[in-house]
Amino acid sequence: MKAVYTDQHFDLVVECKKGSRKAQYNLYQLYSKAMFNVTLRILNNPDEAADVLQEAFIDAFGRMADFRQETTFGLWMKQIVINKSISQLRKRKMNIVSIDEMVLEIPDDDECADMEEIELQVKHVKSAILKLPDGYRAVLSLYLLEGYDHEEISHILNISENTSRTQYMRARRKLLEILKLRGVHYN
């Protein structure tokens, strides 16, 4: 027996299934900003992200009958947005090349800093992430920002789990290089 999740926006979902435009608008208002951020982190292009977001909501509202509450609407919508974003990357002919297993050791930042320093570091990191190649940025975003594990990423991107791990480690290394070039050092 599959679990059925209680969704805080259950009533809106029910109304959407009945074709209510108002309910669709309300769900869009509730989720569009977060979903835009998801697609923007993957695509790194605000115009493309906006287009993908619209397509994802049109697709979701067109398939509301398929939504069976095996998860929350937000998670279901997020998966649609991620899939659409990945499809858009593929249209750009993104190449994630399979490579042999590598183990890279990247030191972690164990130092604590005051709040202003942390905010500055976050700004530098976000800016540096945007400079990563598409494949690196996609894996890094899905792993760090969206919370997917490497097995899930391998299914989403249609790559091996090992490639996901390696792309992630290379993305971290490249991110540290970009930050170092900008004078931001991590131990």
Key words describing this protein structure:
2 domains; Arc Repressor Mutant, subunit A; Rna Polymerase Sigma Factor, Chain: A; 8 helices; 187 residues
Which spans have pLDDT < 50 for at least 5 consecutive residues? 94-107
Mean pLDDT: 80
* Percent of sequence in beta strands: under 5%
What structural class do helix, strand and pairing data support?
mainly alpha
Compute the gyration radius: what is it? Answer: 19 Å
Q: What's the number of domains?
A: 2
- Counting DSSP H or I runs of 4 or more residues, the number of helices is 8
CATH architectural group of the largest domain:
Orthogonal Bundle
Would you write up a description of this structure?
- The protein has helices at 10-17, 21-43, 46-62, 73-91, 115-130, 134-145, 150-157, 161-181.
- With 187 residues, the chain is mainly α.
- The chain has 2 domains: 10-91, RNA polymerase sigma factor, region 2, helix turn helix motif (Rna Polymerase Sigma Factor, Chain: A), CATH 1.10.1740; 115-181, Winged helix-like DNA-binding domain superfamily/Winged helix DNA-binding domain (Arc Repressor Mutant, subunit A, Orthogonal Bundle).
- The longest helix has 23 residues, at 21-43.
- Residues 94-107 have low confidence and may be disordered.
